Amino acid sequence: MDSWAPPESGPFVGRKRAVEEVVSRVRTGRLVTLVGMGGIGKSRLAARVVDVAGRDGFTGVHWAPLWTIGNPALLTSLVADACGLSDHSSGDPVEGLARWIGSRRVLLVLDSCEHLVRACAALVGALLDRCPALVVLATSREPLGTEGEEPYRVGPLSPDSEAMELFTARAAAAGARWTAPEDLVAAAEVCHWLEGVPLALELAAAQLRERPVGSMARLLRGRLALAEGPESRIQPARHRALRTTIGWSHELCEPRERLLWARLSVFRSGATTADVAWVCRGGPLTGDGLAEALDGLVRKSVVSLSGDRLHVYDTVREYGALWLAELGETRSLADRHALRFHALALTVEDSWWGPEQARTYARLTACHADLCAALEHLLATDPVRAGELAGAVGFLWACSGHLHEAAHYLEECLQAVAGPPALLSRLCWALGVVRCLRGEYVTAARLAGRADEEAVRAGDAALLADAAYLRGLVMLLRGEPLDALAVADAALTGPARPAPSVARCRLVRVFALTASGALGEARAEAEALRDDSASAGEHWTRSYTEYQLAVIAVLEERAADAAAHARAMLRDKLLIGDAFGLGLGLDLLAVSLAALDRGEEAAVAYGAGQVFWEMVGHPQRGTPELGPLRVRAEREARRRIGDGAYEEAYGLARLTDPFVTLGAMLAE
Length: 668
Hints:
With 668 residues, this protein is mainly α. Among the domains are: 16-153, 3-Layer(aba) Sandwich (Rossmann fold); 162-251, no CATH class; 254-328, Orthogonal Bundle (Arc Repressor Mutant, subunit A), CATH 1.10.10.10; 575-668, no CATH class. The protein has 33 helices and seven strands. It has helices spanning 16-28, 42-53, 75-82, 93-101, 117-130, 162-173, 181-193, 198-207, 213-227, 237-252, 255-264, 273-280, 288-299, 314-326, 330-345, 347-352, 357-366, 368-381, 383-399, 403-416, 421-437, 441-458, 461-477, 481-491, 499-515, 519-536, 540-555, 559-576, 579-595, 599-615, 626-641, 643-655, 658-666; strands at residues 31-35, 60-65, 106-111, 135-140, 150-153, 303-306, 309-312. The protein is globular. It starts with 15 loop residues before the first helix and ends with a helix. 54% of the residues are buried.
């Protein structure tokens, strides 16, 4: 599987016929939707189908966890992320995603569509129309209603066989094993009372640490009898069984565990234990009390813990949210959740110039859905804080491929925030970088001008330098290196500025010197900036100094040095997940390899690089001087090995996982 899938709580049990039927439909159909109640096992069945069907016949399998988002406007971006598309284009994101999938036979899994049914139906319909070999496997509590959809009803496990097998396996994992006939009878009775609902069985099995199975069967029989009422005539018994089991699990929890269960419902992307400690503390949940409550919820299978990250089933989260509302804490927990991720976002600038940069990238990527949720909440309740959060993460999102989300929230914040000038300058700067990377140079230049004006009003030297960086970047990409040099020089004189702002302006100066032909001066300044970046433990700036050193080495006909610099750039770009930079770096490596008379390897590098360019949704970019180098190197490689050999190597690289190709090239 190429991307995220649900965590496994144990071996897959039963549903052999269902797996075979769904696999058959996936292999012959276009849209299959697994439909069923919460907790019935739709996601686990989908994962099993992918394990079987995805082994052959598909060039890619991508899993989009839709439960992590609540805003339909973010649906396409989430699916694009799941598909490996870091869209830098300025057009319709659906069209960009359709181009990326193209005619490849891709299996796309949309997990938990029920809260976004209309948006999912529209997106799926558009993608299926434009991508002739795409197959979509969805999970939802109701069908999408799209033309050509094949709904597949996911029912409970057979109580006498599959349910008993699952219950026995999960009970053994909880340390409960039975051999006495009366225990086997009681276990079978539990499976019948719980109607074979997998989540209910898993929660019940976790309770066997606290009581014997015979006692559980008696208590469950009584509780389900009490659950009979008017609604039982319109809802299947398995709904009551699941609600009863979740409610029973809730009652078995200690008071602190119940409180923590409710508070955990605020998280979207799976919290770290540090996030839990920050957001959920208070009252009896402090220090050891919170840690013990979390350990209790893990033991009871209410949440699962992998490393330091938690996962909560959708149905369990929904139950917790109901209790949070009963406690009157919904707003206060949303406030604390937003403040947590606001505080995390504000660490970006502090950690940008230092050894924590790569870790910060990884941390904020992992909690992306929670950052979006915090922004949604703050836009409605505290627009200034929303602007601070968006301004803090906007540049990082731009560098790591989340351009559509960055543009969406930065624009929302600019509309909602009237001041102060420093915040407006930061928002305009971050949005300008996004627009520039999308090739919208006129808009980016206008935003740079406004960022500069607001920075002047604020009297903030760092913001003035960042506005200058944006202006210089636009000039470089438009082929105006002397103007960019003048802007960078002006920004680097005057009062002291923070290291990240200074480094970005120094980088503009290096690029401008190279493009204007002052190669010796450019090389000296690039080496100095690289050494400063390395001393600080920073990667983003250092990667672009290596890029410039590679360009300079190519221009000075030092091909071996150019290849070494290109590989150094690629290693840094891998650490921060920059698909745009990986495309640039592979192009430069190809140029270097062609100059070293390694035409076949150059073709492979170009092929892998082209995949990364497709990932960012637009043709090859970079500063203007790179274009002629690409053309000349490709012509030389073709001359050396022949067009046929070149096309074969290039085509094979296009069909190979680009990260595999990249890893082999970096192994030298």
